[in-house]
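Note to self: user wants both folds in one dump. Writing first protein now.
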Amino acid sequence: MTIDTAKPALGTGLKDCVGLVVGATGGIGGACLAQLAPITGTVVATGRRPLPGPLPPNVRTCRADLATETGRQAITAAVMDTAAPLGYVVIASGQAHRAAIDELTADGLRALLDVNVVAPIMLIKELLGLEWTDPAAIVVIGSLSARRALPSRAAYGASKAALEQFARVAAVELAPRSIAVNTLSVGVVDTPFLAGDRERLERYIADRVPIGRMGNAKEVAHTVAYLVGAPGLLTGATIEMDGGTGAAG
């Protein structure tokens, strides 16, 4: 006789917890906030810029710079102030860095790694001192750049690869606490993050992306919502949401 010891998926109990969306002022982070707020008791939304309103009454904003210790402490305090256990964290923050290798500087590289790697890792470390639900989830927004040679993305891709590996190790370390950790590795998504790189990436899509178009932030947010509430058996995974780019080689 087989005994089923699986715990209920987190998605069944989001109304009793607080969720945290980091980078909620960005295109993907904002879409994640819009997707998760209606199904979560309270959501703390944070970013370096003010969040555009109006916001649902269960969303609490925390304007903070994740790359600073003061900012991370403010985010942690905002979660604590809800007096609810932490059910999920979505890391959707990040800084673009578009430069050829011969244009890189040590200072610029250090600044990029501080924002894209050190900051989210140290925030998660701090948040682990709080009460979490059982089960719980961490979802990291990764990038196609971590494993594909996109133009002028050597430094950015390296930072995303580092964060992806951290998430993989965190999944193993946090499994005894029933905290699932997964990375959603996205391809080219139509958000302001593309900035002046749009034309070059449109050519890349025409040549390399089987579905022949950019993704949109709502598509990403739907998948994030699934990962937030997925059964705990799904952990330590990197899910490629790239329009078939990885499959095409």
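First done. Writing the second protein, which came from a different request thread.
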Amino acid sequence: MKSPDIIAHRGVHDEVPENTIAAFERAIELGADGIEFDVRLTADGQPVVYHYYYLEEVTNASGPIFEYSLDQLTQVRVGSSGEHRIPTLLEVLQQFAGEIALEIEIKGPELESAKIIADALMGFEASWQSIEVTAFEPALLRELHAHIPEIPVDLLLPLNPPWMRQDVLEYAAVKAGHLATARAIHLHPLQLTEDLIRSVQGNGLEIHSYDVNDRLSIEKVLALGIPKFDTEIVLEALVARAEFEGRAS
């Protein structure tokens, strides 16, 4: 069985800010199999790599990112050192496409964001086999898939509310995945069971996992044979994977 891919969630940001060029470079240095990052649109419709709506979450600016033009964002700095900035999607593609697997999350909610991201990806056809696009919103994935069907789209499924039992979770995951034209459903470790995995895979969908951010969660996804997972503790995940493979050999 192939070793699971370890994806650095927003890069490796223990010493540098998340979703920055430095965080992605650090992921490569540690040996991650891929990097995950978020894409939002500026006021002038330019795709940039940033997770939150509000800039004050991790930058020296304030207010929603969609009120800033790309030119204005060039003056914004991420983190406290003043040396990191918000990269554009094009910059990240130019530096990392083909060097490491890319997991691009469309934050939305603008429907046009899918086409804008697809247009940016058109210049990197040689790297499409190592790129996937994710979103929580099925409509964004359907739109991206319509423009570039060769790039797989994966649906992110949020943690289910307390009222939702396993039968509804399995049903909703499959139906939402098909609605999104998804290759895979990304689930939280708390949602993963052998029955759910069999149900989803039996309906033609893969299962990946996100927020695998503690040792117990890592051990769980490894034991369940999940082929790809996102984590913020990349080094620990790499060690755990090596130990798991050693026990299995």
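Dump finished. Worth passing along: The longest helix spans residues 234-248.
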